[in-house]
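Fig. S4 source data, part A: sequence.
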Amino acid sequence: MPVDRLVLRLRLNNVAVQATMSHSLIELDIPRRTPVEAAIQGLQGNADCFVFLIVVSPDLLHLPRFHELLRDGMRKLEHLRMSLEFPAEDAQPASRNMVLFDLPSSRFPSMRDLVLYGCGASLTPPLVSRLRRLVMTNEYGHTPTLAIVPFLDCVGAFDHLEELVVSNCFALAFPQDDWAPVPFEARRLIFVTIEDYPSNISQIISALVLPPQAKVRLIGNLRGASTEECCTAFTTMLSGGSSSLTLLRHASCIEAHHSRDKCVIRARADDDYFVLLKVITDALDKPALRRFRGKLFAMMVGTLADLFPEACVSVTSLKFIGYVECVTPATWVGCLARFTALQELGVHDIGLRASPRAVISALSAPSPACAKESLCDNLEELSLCGDLPDLDLLKKIYDCFKARKARGVRRDSLKGLKLELYCDRAFPESEVERYRQLLRAHAQRVYMTIYEESGSRRDN
């Protein structure tokens, strides 16, 4: 009975190959003792028939034969996936250069999907111009050897590309002083993930104009970098990016989050399209470097408006999760004053050991633009989570709203006030309830929960 595809699966010592050919369906199990050379010869003998090829974890001794196979080309091949998995006992990956394959465009005229894990390819515009999906990822530790300039030369050929994923591929490079790319409008490119040095990310993004519906993840690799370099990483990644990432101009929600396991800024539009910025530093997962993480979080708060200058008039929601004790009232004022349309604000201390006193002080202050106006006078929802050192904090929250109302705000009361506070000792319930009632004069809904938890609450 005729069928329309041939699937050839080869599983050898530590090589797995799957190839698909049109017109017939065959499944062939090759015994483990079969030489890898014989399997590769079988592929070469039918190279111009395959439309789908997956090669998983070939023995590194046989890589030259796979290089030869790909140099010869496969005229009908539409999907190529190479996955190199290096031995676990390889203790010094940094000493190993990235494996690069040569894919001559003229010998792969049908290529649509190119997926390379643990390796890469020297790309050319004619090859890239036909791709719908381009994935090249390498684990941190491999020495990235691809030059970024030839890749940037390919950006203008992203006519059909829908997904771009590149991770730890390019050698560190800085743009020339006279480098002024003409951004290419990649209308179909809606899934983008780039993990690399921040300066490399900036050059790639600056060479593109992505559609508004794009979902973008930019991950800066700052391992081994200085504190100063880490603190400028977000700005570096987005330098020149506002013209490339249209979402940066009309974001409605921004969240900044820094803890032991992540350091991210996420901007989202009402339609759920987003840009995610992430940095990977040596301070992650290291308790002793908490002070470094705190400094970085304070920088994230202080420079947030500079990252999204055109969105300051459209952002209605801000959420901060991190090392709240490291952010001064002046930093909060400088940040919040820029977001003139802000309606929802959340400030959560990551370790539940710092009180939100600084942000309350900021909200109590007049607007820097006009002393007769309150900061964030469109505010409707406020959520605070952290330490309750004493009941004086509740008094300061109440006094804050009294001062804002006396100064004049566009809303006489909030729609919602949510307080999740943690203390080392119990406070008189009558006093807590009194403040709850007082706060209800300034918010239509008041959710105030106080948890008694002594000692260290979270190790972040």
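Fig. S4 source data, part B ends here. The two ends are 63 Å apart (CA to CA).
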